[in-house]
Here is the input.
Amino acid sequence: MSPKPLSPPDWDAGSYERTAAQLRPAAEVVVDAAAPRAGERVVDVGCGTGNAALLAARRGAIVIGVDPAQRLLEVARERAQAERIEASFASGDAAALPVGDGEAELVLSVFGVVFASDPAMAAAELGRACSASGRVVLSAWIPDGPIAEAGRLSSEAVANALGSPPPRPRFPWQDRGALQDLLRPHGFDVSIDEHWISFTARSAAEFVAGEADNEPRALAARAVLEPRGEYVPLTERLLAIYEDANEDPSAFRVTSRYVVATARR
Here is the structure.
């Protein structure tokens, strides 16, 4: 029997709103770094529930958020309406942005484009959408720390269960040299700043349970592993990782590092 391919996560599954709320501080950092101006045309790639798009629109930018997850787009639209912010949202992904050539003076992506299955195609699309004097500002995780370790462990468990090869390493969006090589053909020069963000809960066990019940990638792993009796052993290993890395003896806190990359023409 041939191995089953690893399917991409369904970002409409679960409740990504919970994760998006935790990531809002990073969206604020990205938007501050990008400094969108009133009247500037902005595209938010992988907008999810609209964190960065709404922050940019609050500054008076003309914003379109793009995401392949229809339910998350609806959440973003509802947020915009509730907060009385003018922004539009459209279906699409990093390899096929629903905007014209050179239409965006600023392209944002908060942990969105880093999930592109074809980084070269995504880079070409960012370059196509960006104006001749425009810029791209994106965030990317530095692949260390407990959350990265837990993610690798989960991916390996799913691959083993399906008899698939280990997941291929992702393109190193966090590495300036690699990112410069990717974007240079499209006329960009890249600079990078490092930041960090904390994830908190009342306990490590609560954090693991919250991820298991809400995070789309965790739900995809659970669907594969639970029928095989392999899900509980995985959660026990994840809990051990988080308990060992806990930075708050009275509750739970772990820190993840990330970069904000700015690419200018």
Notes: The longest strand covers residues 189-201.
